[in-house]
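Now for my pick.
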Amino acid sequence: MTAEERVRALIDLTESLSDIVTRENDILATRRPRELATLQAEKARLASAYAGAIRDIARDRAAVAEAGGPLIEKLRELTKTFEGCALRQQALLEGATKAGEGLVRAVAGEAGRTSHSKAAIVLDERA
């Protein structure tokens, strides 16, 4: 594979992965987390391919050095965009986690107050 082909392949992977993360972010922002499941297999496939391509380039930077400035610059810009999408996703997930934890604490607190203030309900006289 030529240097240009390697960079173009990484550009394609980066664009595809960014697209999936952006779609996931939209799903998270609109509070439809169950829809995330449909994207996971493709995301895992792309993430694995992306990680492999990055490792290959890290091992041999000369393999992409001859790709040319415009392609390398495009890859840099796409990588920044991807990193921004990933940071947004991290913030969305942290927000969802905090909201979920708050809900659990509220339910547990209410359950604790209810159990102390009322007698147990007997459903069967033999109990």
Notes: The first helix runs from residue 3 to 29. Residues 3-90 form one domain. The two ends are 76 Å apart (CA to CA).
